Structures are given as structure tokens and as C-alpha cells.
């Protein structure tokens, strides 16, 4: 088991590094790569290039043929589907996990002594969603009619971009408490040249109603999204309730509210081989719990929202909830 960890750890670190420099793109279209290609395009030295390719082949990231190396088919499929998970853990939360010991002994505190890499975390979350939850989201949203969409905790802004492409007549607002994430979202939106359709407001979910005129359709129906962050609010006593009360005060009946989030695992689980235990532990390092689906349903209903539909996504214990202000 330790030998496996040794190799898995090194492979994971190298996959992140290789991805960062764009090396995986070199392997696209089943191209055969040799050490000479790495030397030419990435300035590697000969021994380094040869040993990197050789190690990645030993771990089945690559396959080695008579003319050089190709991306392993099984790895390629996994990489396309799940790279966001690895990036979330190693790039978003790498320094938090590395400090597990002082955090668990209380010597250091998340948010005070140690913080995550907000931009990397937000980009990785967007990648995870794109592969695992967005198709469920579009299926749900396509059945609704709305004129303005507000994404609370918009992170990288990638969801807003996708929504803007899918619903070109809908105006949109993104709200995020993190300056870094707002900057990243604005950069992503600027890159696509659709600033007119989407505005980003740096504010907390609890009191974004100060900016309410920028984030509400004057005529027509509003759709409010809260993706991969409702648990952040549930972890601060009264915070989710405060946000829902503010929505109730400022938005008309009929406003849609859609949550997507990672819930906790049931006490007894058949498997521990998926992501859920890891998600739970990393959140624990941040002093956070994950909650069962029933907590979401009760919180919404007590705040005057009717839960219309609950959909499970392709990540275990990850759900979409469609609610409506009544
Ligand atoms: C895990 S990320 C999810 C990003 C995006 N919703 C997605 O699904 O890709 C959570 C985001 O919520 C933001 N956030 C956390 N607490 C918040 C709060 N109280 N008010 C506004 N944004 C918050 C974080 O800054 C972060 O960008």
C-alpha cells in the first residue's frame, strides 16, 4: 500500500505539473511524442524529458510504443472527466491539506493562518461541474422560463458564461464574496466579450440586497442559483436563513431558486472509494460540515420556498434542488 501511495502521490503531482504547462495538449489527436518534442517545445533537458515520459508510462498515464509515447486511452478518458477533482484537491486545497496536522491540533486556523487558493479552487469546481452536474442543470433549467439569472457564489464565472451562451436573451448577475474570484470571473467574461450580458458584484450572499437593482429583472421572472456553496452558508448559524429572508424580501413570488451542492455521506456507506469521504475531510479542515439533503429541504421550506424537484447528479451525494418562492 505504501508503494502504491508513493507512486500515486508522485503521479498526481506530475499530472498537475504537466497539465499546468499544457503538455497534455501535445498528446491530442493520438500524436506520438518523443523526448525530442519536449526538448523542442518545453525546454526540457534530454535526461529529464526521457525520465518524465518513462515514469508517466510506468504509471499508465502514457503508453510506450516503438516510435514514442501516447496518452493512455483509459487515462485520457479519466483525465477529461475527472481532472477537476485532482486540481480541486492539489491546486485549490493543496496547502490546506499539507497543514492538516497544525489545523487538527488547533495550532493553526483555516481562514486565519492558512487559506485555500481561491482562483484555482473556483476554476477546478467549474471543471467538476462542467463534467458532472451541468447537463443535469440544463435539463432542469430548460423546463423553466426566466429573464434574469443571479449566480450567488459565482466563483470563476464559468457557469454564467455557459448560461449566457445557452440563454442569450437572459441577463445575468454573479455575486461572490471573494475579490479574487470576482476578478477571475470578470477576466473570463471579458475574454468572451459578453460584459453587457453579465455583471459581477463583489458582495456576500447574506447582504447582496444592497445591490439589488443591479441583480433583479424589473419585468419578468428571476432565477437565483446557488451552486457548490449553500453548505458555506449552512456552516454559519443563521446565514442561510438570512440570505433566504433577504431574497423573500426583495424578489417576487414565483422566483426560482436552484441549489446544487455536495451533501454528506450517510452514516453507513457501502463504498468509501468515491470522492465523498475526501470532500468531507477537506471541509472539516476548513472547520465546515457537509449536511444531508433533508437539511436543505427543511431550511428552504421554513424560509417560504416550495421544493419542486430534487435531482441527483453523477457525483455521489451531490444534488440539484429546484425551489420556488411561494
Ligand atoms: C466552491 S466555489 C463554487 C463556485 C461556483 N458556484 C461553481 O459552482 O463553480 C464557492 C464560491 O462561493 C463563494 N462564497 C463562499 N461564501 C460566500 C458568501 N457568504 N457570499 C458570497 N460568496 C460566497 C466563494 O468565494 C467561492 O467562489
TrEMBL record:
Cross-referenced SUPFAM superfamilies: S-adenosyl-L-methionine-dependent methyltransferases
A Pfam family that the UniProt record links to this protein: Methyltransf_23
CDD domains (alphabetical): AdoMet_MTases
InterPro entries: SAM-binding_MTase, SAM-dependent_MTases_sf, WH-like_DNA-bd_sf
Protein name: Uncharacterized protein
Annotated source species: Pseudoalteromonas rubra
Lineage of source species: Bacteria, Pseudomonadati, Pseudomonadota, Gammaproteobacteria, Alteromonadales
Amino acid at each position: 500500500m505504501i508503494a502504491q501511495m508513493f507512486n500515486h502521490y508522485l503521479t498526481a503531482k506530475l499530472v498537475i505539473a504537466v497539465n499546468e504547462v499544457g503538455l497534455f495538449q501535445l498528446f491530442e489527436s493520438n500524436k506520438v511524442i518523443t523526448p525530442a518534442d519536449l526538448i523542442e517545445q518545453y525546454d526540457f533537458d534530454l535526461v529529464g524529458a526521457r525520465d518524465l515520459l518513462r515514469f508517466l508510462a510506468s504509471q499508465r498515464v502514457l503508453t510506450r510504443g516503438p516510435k514514442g509515447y501516447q496518452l493512455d486511452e483509459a487515462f485520457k478518458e479519466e483525465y477529461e472527466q475527472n481532472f477537476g477533482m485532482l486540481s480541486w484537491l492539489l491546486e485549490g486545497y493543496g496547502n490546506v491539506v499539507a497543514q492538516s496536522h497544525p489545523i487538527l491540533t488547533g495550532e493553526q486556523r483555516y481562514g486565519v493562518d492558512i487559506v485555500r487558493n481561491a482562483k484555482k479552487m473556483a476554476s477546478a469546481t467549474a471543471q467538476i461541474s462542467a463534467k458532472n452536474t451541468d447537463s443535469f442543470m440544463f435539463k432542469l433549467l430548460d423546463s423553466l422560463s426566466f429573464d434574469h439569472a443571479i449566480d450567488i457564489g459565482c466563483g470563476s464565472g464559468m457557469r454564467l458564461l455557459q448560461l449566457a451562451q445557452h440563454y442569450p436573451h437572459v441577463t445575468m448577475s454573479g455575486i461572490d464574496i471573494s475579490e479574487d474570484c470576482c476578478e477571475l470571473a470578470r477576466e473570463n467574461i471579458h475574454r468572451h466579450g459578453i460584459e453587457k450580458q453579465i455583471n459581477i458584484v463583489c458582495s456576500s450572499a447574506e447582504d447582496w440586497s444592497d445591490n439589488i437593482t443591479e441583480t433583479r429583472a424589473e419585468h419578468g421572472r428571476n432565477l437565483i442559483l446557488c451552486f457548490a456553496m449553500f453548505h458555506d452558508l449552512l456552516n454559519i448559524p443563521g446565514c442561510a436563513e438570512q440570505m433566504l429572508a433577504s431574497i423573500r424580501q426583495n424578489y417576487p413570488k414565483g422566483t426560482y431558486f436552484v441549489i446544487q451542492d455536495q451533501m454528506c455521506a450517510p452514516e453507513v456507506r457501502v463504498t468509501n472509494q468515491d470522492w465523498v469521504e475526501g470532500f468531507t475531510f477537506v471541509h472539516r479542515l476548513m472547520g465546515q460540515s457537509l449536511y444531508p439533503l433533508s437539511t436543505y429541504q427543511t431550511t428552504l421550506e421554513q424560509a417560504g420556498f416550495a421544493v419542486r424537484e430534487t435531482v441527483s447528479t453523477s457525483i455521489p451525494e451531490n444534488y440539484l434542488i429546484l425551489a420556488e418562492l411561494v
